Amino acid sequence: MSRPIDGHLARKRFGQNFLVDQNIIRKIIAAIAVKPGEPIVEIGPGLGALTAPLINAAGHLHVVEIDRDLIARLKEKYSAEQITIHEGDALKFDFGTLTQNAAGALKVVGNLPYNISTPLLFHLADYAAGVKEMTFMLQREVVDRMVADPDEEAYGRLGVMLQYRFHMAKLFDVPPGAFHPAPKVTSAIVRLIPKAASELDCRDEALLAKIVTAAFGQRRKTLRNTLKGILDDAGFTTLGINPGARGETLSLADFVRIANFCAVPA
């Protein structure tokens, strides 16, 4: 069993690993570059490693936290003028309540729990239109999948769907020793900037998601097999896409072309 930190024992069910390295904390805060008065929300503030410097920089901070003990600590330490606490699961939180007031300027930050990182990223993508920028710490393997290019081993559904909605960049790695308790994996910082509406040229995003999921569902099978019932040989020929290729060879633009070709005319 790991030792408590600042009187709090990390809970495995919440995926808690607390950032304690001050140099890494300063580096993350510099990357976020929050300005006074800028609307910002932190997901999973934990013991407040990023919370205090974010409040100092912005003046006020929204946080989403599920752990009642940590919520109580936040309420003791900060005033209502400094912090607004949204109690509950980030996977169920309506970030639209914040983006509406932020007029597209909201920054979202957090050390995302490994156990819910992928579904949480997809949940946050639904609010991209109201967000200026997202900066997250995630398992390095997840970040590598997010920014991967076609034909790379890490390239898959997560990367394609997030790359459709965001411009993304991996900023730097964070070693296990920067946390308590130390995780068994290396983490990384990633920045996501929502794309402009003019860049989102897919006519049916639900169909795009269906096609991408099918293409990567059985990675060793060819597109002719994985997209059977979605795109026939004539369609492949029209689009100039080899039906004998596999999903990982297609670019985001290729997937969008397939989705637009298959979409029911408006």
Automatic annotation (TrEMBL):
SUPFAM superfamilies: S-adenosyl-L-methionine-dependent methyltransferases (SSF53335). Keywords: Cytoplasm, Methyltransferase, RNA-binding, rRNA processing, S-adenosyl-L-methionine, Transferase. S-adenosyl-L-methionine binds at residues 17, 19, 44, 65, 89, 111. The keyword Transferase applies. It holds the Pfam family RrnaAD. It is an enzyme of class 2 (transferase). It is found in: Cytoplasm. InterPro entries: KsgA/Erm (IPR001737), rRNA_Ade_diMease-like_C (IPR023165), rRNA_Ade_Mease_Trfase_CS (IPR020596), rRNA_Ade_methylase_Trfase_N (IPR020598), rRNA_adenine_dimethylase (IPR011530), SAM-dependent_MTases_sf (IPR029063). It comes from the Bacteria. Coiled coil: none annotated. It catalyses: adenosine(1518)/adenosine(1519) in 16S rRNA + 4 S-adenosyl-L-methionine = N(6)-dimethyladenosine(1518)/N(6)-dimethyladenosine(1519) in 16S rRNA + 4 S-adenosyl-L-homocysteine + 4 H(+). One of its GO terms (molecular function) is 16S rRNA (adenine(1518)-N(6)/adenine(1519)-N(6))-dimethyltransferase activity. Residues 24-196 form the Ribosomal RNA adenine methylase transferase N-terminal domain. Its EC number is 2.1.1.182. HAMAP family: 16SrRNA_methyltr_A. NCBIfam families: ksgA (TIGR00755). Belongs to the class I-like SAM-binding methyltransferase superfamily. rRNA adenine N(6)-methyltransferase family. RsmA subfamily. Specifically dimethylates two adjacent adenosines (A1518 and A1519) in the loop of a conserved hairpin near the 3'-end of 16S rRNA in the 30S particle. May play a critical role in biogenesis of 30S subunits. This is Ribosomal RNA small subunit methyltransferase A.
